[in-house]
Amino acid sequence: MSLRPILETRRAIPAMEGAGVKLHRVFGFQDPTELDPFLMMDDFRNERPEDYIRGFPWHPHRGIETITYVLSGTVEHGDSLGNTGTLGGGDVQWMTAGSGILHQEMPKGNAQGQMHGFQLWGNLPSSQKMTAPRYQDVKGSDIPEVIDDDGTRVKVITGEFWGKRGPVDGIAADPQYLDIAMPAGVKKTFRIDTYRRAFAYVFDGAAAFADASQPSGVLLEKEVAGQEVNIRDLSGNRTLIRFGSGDEVTVQAGPDGVRFLLISGAPINEPVAWHGPIVMNTQQELMQAMRDLRNGSFIKPQH
């Protein structure tokens, strides 16, 4: 067994998308090989409805999958195929855009006006970029949760972990998407298949992610049970941890515990031609997608 070294830690940066939604970009629109097969991830966490209520009106997608995971509040969605629905707290929507879809997402807060969730973009290989679009809408109650003796809780959204399999299937990147909560001071090692690219995203509490040589993280300030920990500013500093090759990740929870996403997937290793919500392999394919949008043939008939 070998610990995955930490290649980089960095904070998500403020951004604005849609019709004026304030969010934090965890990664994306830089080097698409960095976390291949994943292209982008946003953390949309807001306390004020005016920062998110205008939402994400109609926009196109082609060549990718979008994974929306809602923690609090709701997201009403609809598409050009006539699908509509509402995602609530704990729900997941895994949308395979494939050959093309027009989509909208309109967030609403909970009773206190709070809204929190994530959207992750996964690339599709060339053989599946023009596949028929499809949805997998998953209720939070259908997502298995494993609770270990030390109080660690793991929600298995997709992939297999600790004997449980997530309800989302048939995804090209064969991803593993875990939502992990660890109590204060707990130290844990998580297995990840060597062939996968992997990252963690801390969104609550604090933790140190052990490197091959020593505990590591951002803002090392205190000690818990003799281990350095990553003390996060709980006002909202968000931290991405990008791992190198190996098959284990060791985590030491901070004084208030930690909650983070641990996500991995098989690299596609193909050229990327990217413009906004459309991701193809070549500039010619990208230009064709733009022409399809202009002439009304972007949406392919479904059989």
Protein model, in words:
With 303 residues, the chain is mainly β. The protein has a single domain, classed as Jelly Rolls (Sandwich), CATH 2.60.120.10. Helices cover 4% and strands 52% of the residues. The protein has 1 helix and 26 strands. Strands 1, 13, 14, 17, 18, 19, 20, 23 and 24 form a 9-stranded antiparallel β-sheet that branches. It is globular. Residues 212-236 have low confidence and may be disordered.
Low-confidence stretches: 212-236
Second CATH tier, the architecture: Sandwich
Distance, first to last CA: 47 Å
What name does CATH use for the topology?
Jelly Rolls
Content of β-strand:
over 45%
Class inferred from helices and paired strands: mainly beta
Rounded to the nearest angstrom, the radius of gyration is 19 Å
Major β-sheet profile: 9 strands, antiparallel
Number of domains: 1
Q: Say which CATH homologous superfamily is assigned.
A: Jelly Rolls
Task: Name its key features.
nine-stranded antiparallel beta sheet, seven-stranded antiparallel beta sheet, Jelly Rolls, about 50% strand, 1 helix, about 5% helix, mainly beta
Short description:
Belongs to the pirin family. This protein has 303 residues and is mainly beta. The chain has one helix spanning 283-295; strands spanning 6-11, 13-17, 21-27, 38-46, 56-61, 64-72, 74-79, 84-87, 92-96, 101-108, 115-123, 134-138, 145-147, 153-158, 160-161, 164-165, 176-182, 187-191, 197-210, 215-216, 220-224, 227-230, 239-243, 248-265, 273-275, 278-280.
